[in-house]
Amino acid sequence: MLDGLLYPNYGPGPRIVSAAESQQITDAHYGSIRGTIFARAYAVSTLGCIGDRRALPVVIDALSDASPMVRRSATTSLMHFQEPSTVPLLIRALEDSASEVCRSAASVLGCFHSADAVIPLMAYYERGDREAKVAALCALGHIGDPRSLPLARAALLDKVRKVRDAAKSALANYDFKRRHEC
């Protein structure tokens, strides 16, 4: 019945839609999602994937959106820009009220290889749950800064296997980086 209302020519046979009906269909479907959390998150993700620097202010603004889904999309999108000036914003996102935003920010900081993120990531590890510890260790492993080696070594003794595995991976990244710097 809903299809009959939205699509006046619905049913078997050729479908002929006028320009006005096409606009009505578009408005009915896409108008309902404009401005929703999903639409904002999708838009921020898409802008990040495109990577046009003109979209960077929009993505940065999305870091303060009311929705954790949008904020997480914003942190992930910043990875595509590889803009060093966004590192402090990502460090601030490590203290977000939503754990998925914090984990996303940690992952992106690892991709940036920023030495400025090492101390905040270590602090995030210390105060975090299992998933936070894993995200922090992965990021620290990608950065490969020797200041975080004691933390990664200590994490080998963690009671949670997932954390121990992340510590092994981080230490392998440190070793790989050290061998290839020579």
Sequence-ordered SSE layout with sheet pairings:
Layout: H1 2-6, H2 19-30, H3 37-50, H4 56-62, H5 68-81, H6 87-93, H7 99-112, H8 118-127, H9 130-143, H10 149-155, H11 161-181
Helix pairs in contact: 3-4, 3-5, 4-5, 5-7, 6-7, 7-9, 8-9, 9-11, 10-11
Molecular shape: elongated
How many independent structural domains? Answer: 3
- Portion of residues in beta strands equals under 5%
Unreliable stretches: none
Mean pLDDT level: 88
Q: For this structure, what is the CATH class of the largest domain?
A: Mainly Alpha
Protein model, in words:
The chain has three domains: 1-32, no CATH class; 37-81, Single alpha-helices involved in coiled-coils or other helix-helix interfaces, CATH 1.20.5; 86-182, Leucine-rich Repeat Variant (Alpha Horseshoe), CATH 1.25.10.10. The mean pLDDT is 88. The chain is elongated and about 65 Å long. It is 69% helix and 0% strand. The longest helix is centred in the last third of the chain and has 21 residues, at 161-181. α3 runs antiparallel to α4 (56-62). With 182 residues, the protein is mostly helical. The protein starts with a helix and ends with a helix.
